[in-house]
Write a structure and sequence with these properties.
Shape: globular
Helix content: 25-40%
Bound molecules: 2-oxoglutaric acid, fe (ii) ion
Order of helices and strands: HHEHEEEHHEEEEEEHEEEEEEHH
Distance between the termini: 44 Å
Length: 287
């Protein structure tokens, strides 16, 4: 039973018995995750990975980090074009430097701990339960589905809202200093942007909105970033900060656009071009 192998080798199944969804330990873990997600859009499952594996987790990340696409990009918090027609005082006009770099899925060995977790069906089932989703699918995108997010000293992953509904991540290597995950729970809602509050955070006067997570390698983080502005604060010291991003959707077949893929990874694959062609044609018939 391959799935059981992943569970017992990688996950601390004494704390998170994923193969036994009816157990009181697992029911309590799911209940807590759901309650915290409903409250703040964020929950951390501490010590998800077996403690004796945290050094392997770190070392594997360190080995793949040189394959990240390093290119500083000018962005805003909303992931919209910088020349968008916005009022003078709109926080979307504040330009930030995105200095993090992603190692794409095709550079992450299939036997790496994070890759084995990402594709494990019981892990996916557990994550879906925590988010209260009926189903969960890996991205069909060969690059964006699983990434290692690398923030080098002097860099940050600046304030932003996510375009996806939910994110699953795991710190694999902390920074020596800085590199803290900071977030503003529900600073906007589906009904209201709360631009004044967002501007306050972006300009450094919104401390009252900001919460900080103390993450340790091997903690599993579940996050809903569409309404909660968040960032990884500037990294300092000698070490890069590494985190695995496990990207899932509630519908199958998710492939990134050609433009965004080139920005994030510096290249595109035939799958991205094919998906773009399908989107234009609206069907999969031969020309
Ligand atoms: O690396 C992290 O902890 C945060 C990543 C993030 O916010 C993102 O990829 O959208
Ligand atoms: Fe994000």
């Amino acid at each position: 039973m391959a799935a059981l192998g992943v569970l017992d080798e990688i996950i601390d199944t004494a704390r998170y018995p994923l193969a036994d969804p009816g157990s009181s330990a697992l029911r309590e873990a799911v209940r807590r995750a759901r309650a915290e997600l409903a409250d703040t859009g964020c929950t951390v499952l501490r010590g998800f990975i077996r403690p004796e594996l945290t050094d392997t987790l770190r070392a594997q990340g360190e080995r793949m980090a040189p394959h990240a696409h390093y290119e500083v990009e000018q962005v805003n918090a909303y992931n919209i074009p910088l020349d968008a027609d916005l009022p003078e005082d709109h926080p979307g006009r504040i330009v930030l430097e995105r200095g993090n770099a992603f190692v794409p899925r095709d550079r992450i060995p299939a036997d790496a701990l994070i890759h084995r977790l990402y594709t494990d069906e019981l892990f996916q089932r557990f994550v879906a339960d925590c988010f209260g989703l009926a189903e969960l699918h890996e991205f069909a995108d060969p690059l964006a589905g699983l990434c290692l997010n690398v923030v080098a000293p002097g860099m940050s992953h600046p304030w932003h809202f996510d375009t996806n509904e939910f994110t699953v991540s795991m710190l694999t290597q902390p920074a020596e200093d800085g590199g803290v995950f900071e977030y503003c729970p529900n600073i906007r809602t589906p009904e209201a942007e709360h631009l004044d509050d967002v501007r306050a955070v972006l300009t450094g006067t919104g401390e009252r909105f900001v919460q900080r997570l103390e993450l340790r390698p091997g903690d599993l983080q579940l996050f809903q970033g569409r309404f909660s502005l968040h960032r990884v604060s500037p990294v300092s010291g000698a070490r890069q900060r590494h985190s695995a991003i496990f990207a899932y959707t509630d519908r199958p077949g998710m492939v990134g656009t050609v433009e965004r893929t080139r920005q994030l990874f510096g290249r595109v694959l035939p799958d991205h071009l094919a998906a773009a062609a399908d989107a234009v044609r609206g069907d999969r018939l031969l020309d």
